[in-house]
TrEMBL record:
Residues 1-19 form the signal peptide. Keywords: Signal. InterPro entries: Secre_tail. Residues 157-222 form the Secretion system C-terminal sorting domain. It comes from the Bacteria. This is T9SS type A sorting domain-containing protein.
């Protein structure tokens, strides 16, 4: 009995860090995101790296404050681009990282034609809900900001709403298309092709996320699709 008590005392006295405490690094740690109110997707990418000695499950929560009412914001992580109403990483979809591995956390915002500014905060958490890092940022949306016309901004899905099929505007580098439902489950995969139609007529009516990917698996853009 004495040996058992001594063993428990030694275990409980071990520093938390030596029990596999999760640590991360973030680059950049803060950000300022500028854009024009005519843009529908103003985004910023942050690199999150697991600096722990072991594997880690990384979760996140987001909060936008002092913003104009129409503004919407959403997060894309290692697994999925979520709808604006999702304010935290689902418990069953952690970002799994091995030691030294990284993933790109994408912060997106649609100003909906309204100028203004807002404070933004993304908190990274471990699987116990402990805060690992707080990323602070600011959105600055003004008509004085020039709009850069890139291939990414020209991407579109049509018709939207879709009934039987949808198409994607042609762009070099588009290799595959993944379709997710609103709870983050993949429901369909397509190989992309010029002027190709993608059938969705047998799917349940509702909102889906169309993820456009390059040949290397990099997410080019995620677009919301309404199926009716």
């Amino acid at each position: 009995m004495v040996r058992l008590l001594l063993f428990l005392t030694l275990v409980l006295s071990i520093p938390l860090a030596s029990r596999g405490q999760v640590t991360v690094s973030v680059d950049p740690p803060t950000f300022v995101l500028t854009g024009n109110p005519t843009q529908t997707d103003v985004s910023y990418h942050v690199q999150v790296t697991n600096t722990s000695a072991g594997s880690a499950s990384i979760f996140w929560s987001k909060r936008m404050s002092n913003n104009p009412v129409p503004w919407t914001s959403w997060i894309c992580d290692k697994n999925l681009c979520y709808l604006p109403e999702v304010n935290s990483c689902p418990p069953l979809k952690p970002n799994l990282l091995g030691p030294g591995e990284s993933f790109e956390l994408q912060i997106h915002m649609n100003p909906l034609q309204v100028e203004g500014s807002a404070d933004y905060q993304v908190t990274l958490l471990d699987d116990l809900g402990n805060s690992l890092y707080v990323i602070n940022g600011q959105f600055l949306i003004s008509n004085s900001t020039a709009v850069k016309e890139t291939n990414e901004t020209k991407l579109s899905v049509f018709p939207n709403p879709a009934t039987d099929f949808f198409k994607v505007s042609d762009i070099p580098g588009l290799n595959s298309i993944e379709l997710f439902n609103i709870v983050g489950n993949k429901v369909r995969s397509f190989e992309a092709g010029p002027q190709k139609q993608y059938y969705v007529g047998d799917l349940t009516d509702g909102i889906y996320l169309v993820r456009l990917e390059s040949a290397g698996g990099k997410v080019i853009k995620t677009i919301r699709l309404s199926k009716r």
